[in-house]
Amino acid sequence: MSARTDGAHIIVLGNEKGGSGKSTTAMHVIVGLLHEKRRVGCLDLDVRQGTLSRYVANRIEFCRRGGVRLPMPEQIVLDPPDVAALEPAVRELALRTDVVVIDCPGSDTPLSRRAHAMADTLITPLNDSFIDFDVLARVDAEGVKVVRPSHYAEMVWEQRKQRALERRAPIDWIVMRNRLSALDARNKRDIAHALESLAQRIGFRLAPGFGERVIFRELFLKGLTLLDLREPGTGGGLTMSHVAARQEVRGLLQALRLPVAATPTPATPLVQTALLGTT
Q1: Is 195 contained in some domain?
Q2: What is the pLDDT of residues 213-237, one digit of tens each?
Q3: Sheet holding 9-13, edge to edge
């Protein structure tokens, strides 16, 4: 049975390698959509790390302490964090929001697999190195020829088949290169070539990624994103680097190609909900 009960669009952030920037990307997507006046819900499935949950909590605390008003997502906390709790949570959020963003753990779990099968859009952040590229595919010793898809790509393929069995539209899979260096190096060009080759082979789109910038890490403690820095009370004086980073975020949002809501609706206030699952 499909987890969706209305027109909410489900975005899943997934990669089986930790440290790829999934939670940072998820929060910037969430806030970007909120600034577009969409109603956004979110789920953090990485129970052990809980980075997205802490990011949202930091945002609430920043607003409380400074008397600042910022758009907030609606969040559901899974309790217990299992597949039986996931589907009711997604249905509940889908009834009240336009977009549901799900942040998956950096490991292969039944919960993560089921979330991937629910995705209308799957975003896979990938650090710009062949160590991280190995999650998607094996390449030859020269880093030029793709030998075969790797375990994560095979898992996504399995979830695509599951979605087809549920007679739902195909997953729009987007891979974004993360922590890009400003320097033009041979390794950077080789990764670009390998990704373009692999995209045609296993069916994903390439989207603009985020550069290696300290600001992404600094904003976490306040629960802010680059798209918040011009809001009153955020203390955001924008440098040229910040402006460039904001453009990277906007580039990713445009690459999502989300359906345009006929009538934009106000962003929802944040509601923390504990979902106890089923008995």
Answers
A1: yes
A2: 788 888 999 999 999 988 888 876 7
A3: 205-207, 172-178, 121-127, 9-13, 99-103, 40-44, 74-78, 272-275
- Could you tell me the CA-to-CA distances from 38 to 1, 70, 71, 81, 167 in Å, in that order? 26, 14, 10, 27, 27
Check residue 147 and give left, alpha or beta (phi > 0: left; psi -120 to 50: alpha): alpha
Domain, as residue range, for 56: 9-257
Instruction: Output DSSP code: residue 267.
Output: P
Half-sphere exposure of 196 (CA within 13 A, CB side): 7
Helix/strand/coil for 23 = helix
Which structure tokens are listed for 68? 């600042």
pLDDT in tens, 51-83: 999 999 999 999 999 999 999 999 999 988 899
Does 2 map to a domain?
A: no
Q: How far is CA 133 from CA 14, 108, 139, 235, in A?
A: 14, 17, 9, 37
DSSP SS3 for 78: strand
Do 242 and 226 meet the contact criterion of CB atoms below 8 Å apart? Answer: yes
Cα gap 229→190, rounded to integer Å:
35
Total structural domains within the chain: 1
122-136 pLDDT, tens digit each: 999 998 778 888 888
Among 197-201, 238-242, 268-272, the least confident range: 268-272
CA–CA distance, 245 with 263 (Å, rounded to integer): 29
pLDDT exceeds 70 at position 279: no
- Is residue 41 a part of any domain in this protein? yes
CATH number, domain with residue 215: 3.40.50.300
Q: Is residue 151 part of a domain?
A: yes
Residue 1: alpha-carbon gap to chain centroid:
24
